[in-house]
Amino acid sequence: MPEESSRQRQGHLFRRLCAEPELEKAWLEVLGHYARQSLPKDLQEFERRRSHNLARLAAQLREGTFTPEPASLIYIPKPGRPDEQRPITLMKPEDRIVLTLLNRLLEPLFERQFLSHSYAYRKGRSALQAVERVEKCLQYGLEHVATGDIDDFFGSLNRRRLMKILSRTIWERPVLDLLETYLYMGATRYLEWVESDRGIAQGSPLSPLLSNVYLIEFDRFLDGLGVEWVRYADNFILLAQDPDLVREAFHRAETFLQETCELHLNPESRVFASYSQGFDFLGFRFCDGRRFMAPAKLEQKKLTLATHLRSYPDDLQGLVKALTESVAGWRAYYGSSPDTREQLEILQQHLFDLLVCWLQRYRSSGSGRRTSAVELKATLTELELPAETDPRKKLKWIELLLARSRPPLPPPLSPTVRKAVEKRKRDLRKKIEMRSRRS
Question: Which residues of the chain have pLDDT under 50?
Fold first, then answer.
């Protein structure tokens, strides 16, 4: 492309993408995802020469010489489902910066196109708000529902369709080329190139926004079905007073997903129910005026607690931090409903039972024996509990935990053993006395 023509195709988005101050803001956002002491090595190395690295990246973007790197593909257990894995891509610092900045630049352009019924990956919106909207609809009498979730959502998106949607809003060729390069750049696993012709990378800072962009037309279609609806990422629910209207709308929505979006639903997620019968959505069980934790989610949470304890066999501080991160999130989400109190107490008792066994082993180990009961108590006070927030009651819980986990005393010595030990002690004392006399 001639240089003059190329300049004409560049606009404010591309200029901001190449600006060092903007790149530095994106870099600081990347760093914000980590505690200072847990910063990955490649990010540490980039940070040591931050100014030089950002200047070089800005120049490469301006000159059109920047080429994304293939990400490293790894598989991690799904939360609460250790037998299932999901793919995650690990990206170089430069790619994380560029994608983070692209997300910041593009988000305002598409946010105005998103509908109010969509709650995932948007500033000021959350899964809990989606749940509360569903509850409000049920209270208004829209008691018949249909729910579904999209199978392998991130891995199934049609990239050509996504680029077509993006190009309706973005006209700058350098930005579109960069987006397309990231979509089609493969990944490496054990030094082998891994690529496919569909999907977007999980782990990319831009993927959440792209997923919402891909479903813009689906959201608009749902909005014209004559029923209330709520979508959170790949989960959606339709609500109405008439069960036949909900069923018909759901079938039309599924057909649109298949024929226009080229996506398919998980068969087991296709549920038609009423408020009195009960149904699950975003981890909650809605049933006859109550909203409590879905039973399957409760079991997953128990499994997550056990997984944390196995992951930190001799690191009390690491364990407390991991447990607190999980438990605080659960309490904030599920504690929003008074109907979950009993389930959170069940989780708290389960945590107590697991910790008793863990602490017994820890306190019998080398590092545990060097840790006093006062130090143990101080560390455990940092732990968030699923149900209890009263500081005094929490302290009693910790004191009982320490009492129950006290290592058992060694069994008393038999008279024969005690007699033999005492004899050798006397022999030793006699030797010491004889040496002292000779000297």
Answer: 1-8
pLDDT digits (tens, 9 = 90+) for 116-151: 999 999 999 999 999 999 999 999 999 999 999 999
Q: What DSSP element (H or E) covers 143? A: none
Taking each helix axis from N to C end, the angle separating 341-364 and 295-311, rounded to the nearest 10 degrees, works out to 20
Per DSSP, helices labelled H in 140-232 are: 153-156, 159-167, 173-184, 207-214, 216-223
- 219 backbone dihedrals φ, ψ, rounded to 5°: -60, -45
Structure tokens at 264: 């398919």
pTM value? 0.85
- Which residues lie across from 150 on neighbouring strands? 265
- Cα 375 to chain centroid distance, Å, stands at 31
CA diameter of the chain: 107
What is the per-residue burial (b if ≥16 Cβ within 10 Å, else e) of 387-413?
Answer: bbeeeeebeebbeebbeebeeeeeeee
Alpha-carbon span 10 to 176, nearest angstrom: 11
pLDDT at 79: 61
**How far lies 125's CA from each of 33, 79, 133, 193, 231, in Å?**
19, 22, 12, 37, 12
> Cα-Cα-Cα-Cα dihedral of 30, 200, 294, 304, to 10°?
-50
Which residue in 186, 187, 165 sits closest to 176, CA to CA?
A: 165
Helix (H) or strand (E) holding 122: none
Q: What's 381's DSSP letter?
A: T
* pLDDT at residue 436, as a whole number: 82
pLDDT value at residue 438: 80
Residue with tokens 């004392």: 429
Name the DSSP class of 112.
T
**pLDDT for 6:** 43
pLDDT of res. 80: 53
Taken in order 31, 33, 39, 43, the sign of the CA dihedral is negative
pLDDT score of 435: 83
Q: Name residue 59's beta-bridge partners.
A: none
Question: Which residues have CB under 8 Å from 377's CB, separation 6+?
Answer: 398, 399, 402
In the numeric block, which tokens belong to residue 66? 């920047």
The three-state secondary structure class of 70 is coil
What Å distances lie between residue 65 and 5, 58, 372, CA to CA? 17, 10, 59
- Cα atoms found within 13 Å of the Cα of residue 323, Cβ hemisphere only: 29
The Cα 201–Cα 434 span in angstroms is 80
